[in-house]
Glycosyl hydrolase 1
Amino acid sequence: MVFPEKFLWGGATAANQCEGAYDTAGKGLSLVDILPAAKENREYALFHPKEAMQKEYSYYPSHESIDFYHHYKEDIKLLAEMGYRVFRMSLSWPRIFPNGDDAEPNEAGLKFYDDVFAECQKYGIEPLVTLNHFDTPLALFDKYNGWSDRSLIKLYVHYCETVLKRYRGKVHYWLTFNEINMILHIPFLGGGMDVNNVENSEQVKYQAAHHQLVASALVTKLAHEIDPENKVGCMLAAGQTYPYTCAPEDVFAAMQADRESYFFIDVQARGYYPSYAERVFANKDVTIEMAADDKKILREHTVDFISFSYYSSRLTSTDPEVKSKTAGNIFASLKNPYLKTSSWGWQTDALGLRITMNQIYDRYQKPLFVVENGLGEKDVLTEEHAVHDEYRIAYLKDNIKEMGEAIADGVECWGYTSWGCIDLVSAGSGEMSKRYGYIYVDRDDNGNGSLRRYKKDSFNWYTKVIASNGQLLFK
């Protein structure tokens, strides 16, 4: 099995889950900064953000997180030691525009990312930058109810133009929105919105999605104009949906479930709303309000590549008697009896990655980039400061092998950045104990710990995988 010679091996993080320094050097509040830890009912706060803003919790995991803000040199050096060719990270919009609609950017915020990119360049690591990774400024939620208001298009484009110009030549790979389809499932994180107490929440969510799609196209246009070397991608929370049985009703239900997510990428990759959108909107009583040139903007400024997260496949059935469910990346799913399950109830399905990659590539014929994939587990730090995470190595080995098989199938894939390459705060639960990284961070769910970094067994294993350009897995 041969991976492309210049295949981009690396790992992924998000500013809102690792940076900390939530109010340092002029940074404004992000959406996650009002969310408590799991023990104080983070899930309820996530779906009732207006109530959460009125409460004072005992602990906010994002406020310090793993303090990447002050540890970035140490952390990037560790990534370089593994041989990273690419580092997926995100910019914190409120670190640069504290209120989202400020006339001028916060220079201290811009300077921080100058320093981060300089550190990456020092080691020959290419940054892959997400422009909005669940990080809309909280002030825009308060003032506009986030992306439900078309005003955010202009504000987002202004922010993006600022950073595209500032980091011209330092960054060549950009993602406009993280897991853009999540706006339907977690509207607060995905769109900075509260959809409680509205007449038709579907109308609000799909209208907000349209605003993001237009904004994405405008930023794609800008990125290409500012630097023709820029490559701009979209990002999907992916995972093939299997029918529970071969009953035609189950097969059709699985197709519809996949379409709900592909809907967004259809627009970003093809440049227009898919034919099935009309019926979806009619069934949900949704009417998309468009400006005169929206369709032209979408049509003329499609993305260069498609990136996605993959943790597991999904399963659906039309039989009301089939009720056994399992957790997942926000999406609940029926439990697949043929798959293993992690400590957090997420099922693992390596072959599903190959299936998903083939499906996406067949659909769009654009290069792919696997930008999230990993296993969240409870790691134990020994007295010798070691972590024996053979379960993570097994998960990643199986998934990377299937990614290689997909490439052999004819899928063009530019790179792989496994999720949470250094332990960070879980977006959904706010936990530190749900660890994904190759690097253990001494921090617990209550904010205790030294923040010291320790290499896990998987650190050395992934170093060898990268050094062999993936060939280690096929020996």
